[in-house]
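quick one, two chains, predict together pls
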Amino acid sequence: AQSVTQPDIHITVSEGASLELRCNYSYGATPYLFWYVQSPGQGLQLLLKYFSGDTLVQGIKGFEAEFKRSQSSFNLRKPSVHWSDAAEYFCAVGARPSSYKLIFGSGTRLLVRP
Amino acid sequence: GAVVSQHPSWVICKSGTSVKIECRSLDFQATTMFWYRQFPKQSLMLMATSNEGSKATYEQGVEKDKFLINHASLTLSTLTVTSAHPEDSSFYICSASRRVDKTGELFFGEGSRLTVL
């Protein structure tokens, strides 16, 4: 069965510091992977997605993620965090693009210190 | 483009009443819409998948008679929480897939917070 694990419930970084949010997945075939961001009381916004090809994926707001099949990971990174990045981040896996049925991880709350 | 809007954004109701939440795709036709429930500080749990003009497909453990879903058009899906109880209080989020889009991207509404007294 598909599953997504985000081992860090919350992470605190200083503004300007680099960020890495971890995501591990379990899926029997080629996964389709997504990172979403949710601001308090809001819906989700897609940051980036991986379907195939280059394992390093660039997204919006300066985020990137790297798919590592050998580690079953899809970690999200940003070289320099801004205070506005404080939010909840969700990793998700889908069976295939056209199914749209996503399994979400439990989320990681990012706090940014001034 | 690709905006999904939910209404109302928050609602308070008395126990035993029914509440309807709307999910609209404002600038595209949505092949499929999804309804999720999110408890505080937890992830999104898929409740059901609705396709325009057909019955919704509910996830295991979700009561069909309690959470009525109607997808009457390619731009509107509604979730009705019937005979609401305090334990139904939650944040409900919808998402939609674009009819012409095969990339698997979903577009999410801003969510609706339901509080049942």
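Residues 21 and 67 of chain B are 11 Å apart (CA to CA).
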